[in-house]
Design brief:
The protein is α/β, with parallel strands linked by helices. The chain is built from 7 helices and 8 strands, in the order E-H-E-H-E-H-E-H-E-E-E-H-E-H-H. It has one domain (15-178). It is 38% helix and 18% strand. A hairpin with a 2-residue loop joins strand 6 and strand 7.
């Protein structure tokens, strides 16, 4: 395999912003955001991983950016003639990276994910549910004030491109997901040990 290119690399100019999680959820529900382009993996996060993201939101811990492509621009239209013609409305956005975070946001804001009620001030919890781990709460079990508090914390950094093709989207997917070295279970156990020592 060669890393040589036939021309100098083109700067793709992905615009970095922060968006409330409900922006992504609403677009998925309306069908204007595609979660399953052909290079994308399935729904793989566990509830434990989803709870970790909600905890990060509530604590204000930075989370990785969601990377999307806005397919409504002229570059996409030139490369994909007829994309917006015909019956139905094709997706305006394609999710290149961040599908699991968006699915987590949909589960949390839709009331399908339970998290420990102790993560919230007691006066923000309206309806808690008993579990083997104590009281848990859904987003829909929070008071109106609690829901507003939680929604305002659910922010996702977003890098938005205007790429011309699915091939370019897949190239970005590979660069975003293939550049690092995954944490080993030993790395995670060590960090958990250090975190527990502080309690």
């Amino acid at each position: 395999m060669t890393r040589q290119t036939t021309a100098p690399l083109e700067h793709l100019s992905l615009n970095a912003t922060n968006r409330f999680a409900d922006f992504f959820v609403r677009n998925v529900q309306r069908g204007t955001m595609l979660l399953d382009p052909p290079y994308q993996r399935g729904d793989v996060w566990t509830d434990s991983q989803r709870m970790g993201l909600v905890r990060s939101w509530l604590m204000g811990i930075p989370v990785p950016a969601v990377v999307i492509n806005d397919r409504s621009g002229p570059a996409w239209a030139r490369a994909n003639p007829g994309y917006f013609d015909g019956d139905g409305t094709p997706a305006v956005y394609a999710v290149i990276d961040g599908k699991q975070r968006i699915l987590c946001a949909a589960a949390w804001l839709g009331g399908d994910l339970l998290v420990p009620a102790s993560w919230f001030p007691a006066d923000h919890v309206d309806t808690a549910e008993d579990t083997d781990d104590g009281s848990y709460v859904r987003f829909t079990g929070l008071t109106i004030v609690g829901q507003r508090f939680a929604e305002n914390r659910c922010v996702l950094p977003c890098a938005e491109g205007r790429l011309a093709t699915v091939h370019q989207e897949a190239e970005v997917y590979l660069l975003v997901n293939g550049g690092g070295t995954p944490q080993t279970s030993a790395d995670m156990k060590n960090a958990a040990r250090v975190a527990a020592d502080g309690n």
